[in-house]
Amino acid sequence: MNKMYATEYTHRHIEELTLNHWQPLSTSLYDGWVLRFAKGYTKRANSVQAIYPSTLDVHEKITACEQFYTSNQLSTIFKITPFVQPEELDQLLQDKGYVVIDRTLVQLRRLEDLKAPEHLEVHINEQLTDEWLHHFCRFNAVNEECRETMTQMLSNVRAKTAFITLSVDGLVAACGLGVVEQGVIGLHDIITDTTYRNRGLAEQMILHLLHWGKSHGAVSSYLQVVEKNAPARRLYAKLGYTDAYTYWYRIKKYIP
């Protein structure tokens, strides 16, 4: 296996894991494309993942996808990755008036030489709890309807999970999610309460998650960070993450 192919294979594998680790409520397969639906909660769970080869006319497929999402009262969103099929899909969507949003970096690191965390006031539960969900929704101002949707989405994850909270003097200050599958731990929903930011707590929490992942067979880790989020990118660089590939979304707004 040559180096270029090995890298593409690794990155495509990571892309598949990102889909496994952030589950929608329902999925439809359409000629090599994966259509995900979750009542509009997050773009990742409500978009077309065009990552496998197809045979039908691409223009007809785009129209059909628009009909699928419109019938569910959702905007039509395509996730554009380096593995998109067909390769010209991004240009075709641009020509049809789709707008680019949320350029995002997928970053990777190996788990050798992982330093030990210093902040020890953490709790990891391998099942979703009401307490974790409460703090996540509080930090992110998630409403009740989206909370119910998120509960179902997280319950759909079939890989091993770690729901972590980090506390300061007995008060929960940060939370996050780690998911381990096939030797890789993905980090999701890393969030710190605004009152406790810029204290290095997210770094400590991530170190705990990475050690947990390593104890469950992970040898590498991925995360996703919006390109414009400079503070998060600085943190992840400090933790040893480097850019692997970039993706973005093409969106056509739903008009009732």
From TrEMBL:
SUPFAM superfamilies: Acyl-CoA N-acyltransferases (Nat). Residues 106-256 form the N-acetyltransferase domain. GO terms for molecular function: acyltransferase activity, transferring groups other than amino-acyl groups. The keyword Transferase applies. The keyword Repeat does not apply. It holds the Pfam family Rv0428c_C. Keywords: Acyltransferase, Transferase. This is GNAT superfamily N-acetyltransferase. It comes from Paenibacillus amylolyticus.
